[in-house]
Amino acid sequence: MGLNEKSSAAIFVTTAVTFGWYFFTAMTDQATTTEFASRMWWTLGVYVALIITAMIIAAVTTNKGDMEDMEEFDERDRQIEGRSEVWGSYIQGAGLIGLLFIVTTDHSKFVIAHSILGLLVLSTLVSFGLRFYFYRKG
Predict the structure, then answer these.
(1) Is there a contact between 3 and 62 (Cβ–Cβ < 8 Å)?
(2) Distance, CA of 96 to CA of 93 (rounded, Å)
(3) Of 28, 112, 120, 134, which is least surrounded by CB within 10 A?
(4) At 41, is the secondary structure helix, strand, or coil?
């Protein structure tokens, strides 16, 4: 498995686990808005640290020959990246319409913040999940 595949899989798994845990606790706890604000920022910090760690592990465990191939970002890589980003953008565009509805109706800041975060997480999962799928497909 090359570095592109490893990094795509690492980002997908890290995003799913970190924010899956966060949204599970957000929907099951009866915490105050202040507690969720601090928990959201803590989760984002942990997410960044895990992504950095996952990228380092992916780079260290990749063969030297694969690393040399990384220097040549070919047309296939551009197409895979482009197609996966397009689908992630479709999710964001459709989600923004839903967010406009949420903002224009009188919902709490809690609902708005979690809707925005959920949209970003979903588009990231779609983008990197498809990227990993396209690399595995060949």
Answers:
(1) yes
(2) 5
(3) 28
(4) helix
Other Cβ atoms closer than 10 A to 90: 13
Residue 109 CA to residue 86 CA, distance in Å, equals 29
Find tokens 């990228």 and name the residue.
55
Residue 49 Cα distances to 15, 55, 98, angstroms: 12, 10, 30
Report in angstroms the alpha-carbon separations of 114 from 11, 81, 105, 119. Answer: 20, 27, 15, 8
Q: What is the pLDDT of residues 19-64, one digit of tens each?
A: 888 888 877 776 666 777 788 888 888 888 888 888 888 777 776 6
**Owner of token pair 């970003």:** 120
> Which ranges of the chain does DSSP label H, i.e. alpha helix?
3-28, 33-61, 64-70, 75-104, 109-137
Other Cβ atoms closer than 10 A to 133: 14
